[in-house]
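Let's sit down with a protein and look at its sequence and fold side by side. Go ahead whenever you are ready, and we will take it from there.
>
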Amino acid sequence: MTEGKARAPEQITDRLFATERNPEDFRFDASVARVFPDMIRRSVPGYTTIIPMIEVITEQYAQPGSNCYDLGCSLGASTLAMRHGIPYPDCTLVGVDNSSAMIERCEHYIALDDHELPVTLRCEDLLNTELNQAAVTTLNFTLQFVPPEHRLNLLTRIADATLPGGVLILSEKVRFESDCEQDIQTRLHHEFKRANGYSDLEISQKRAAIEKVLIPETLAAHRERLLNAGFDQVLVWYQCFNFVSMLAIKTR
């Protein structure tokens, strides 16, 4: 792993749900992009571990002359991790996001990063983005925002584009088959948010805004779909509460 010199995005405090507001679906607009680094750090347990490990995994699985993709790149945290993990100068790195506000800020952080590997950013729907010769693809808390009926097709396209020996890094919020476990893990997640300074109002309003657009599934459902899509092996390499990161490997 190379010594990273990426500059962390500025931490503007997330106060989007701190006051009473009309209920509306969560959107990755300019207001979210502005506070996103603080929001995800305080909302997703393990995020600050997952990002540097994406660099480690990328270094292990990148291949000479291959393409690497960060699908749903947001502000580019995973993109930068992949950039610093890729050991081959002839690799191509592509970040894709359908939010122009996210891509605009991502361009800024890519430009600040002290690394020579070029990064191509695409502002487009990842369901339609072109994929080929992929060694490492990342869906870092992205698939959960894709409508369930489109998820298999997306993963199949990724698997079809993945070279033998290539991988997909899939990080997701999951739900549990046991109601008891679901309740415990949800409570612990909310306590994590409270420990990071979110009020009960912020937690409840964020949950109401996001529940119709973030559709979690069980770990078993993810495994089955990844195998049906064409990956040969699926393993969990990280879990904290109801947040999981998986490695789907294409061996053939």
